[in-house]
Design brief:
This protein is of the alpha+beta class and 70 residues long. 47% of the residues lie in helices and 17% in strands.
Amino acid sequence: MERPRSVGLAWYEPGDYPRIREAMAESGLPESYAAWQISATQIEREVARSGVAVVRIRIEPEPFLAWCRD
């Protein structure tokens, strides 16, 4: 199987993080935004080092939750 040229990485803004975390309580997201950001940035770097472009996809809580409900 071919490696993808690019991948999307869910990206949250600091002000949106509490609502995202509340909505996805069972997801295992870290308690703090800072901890999540460190982890996400590390993943982003590792994937990029493998030659795959990483595109940050901003997840806005309410539109995302509406999409999930639909």
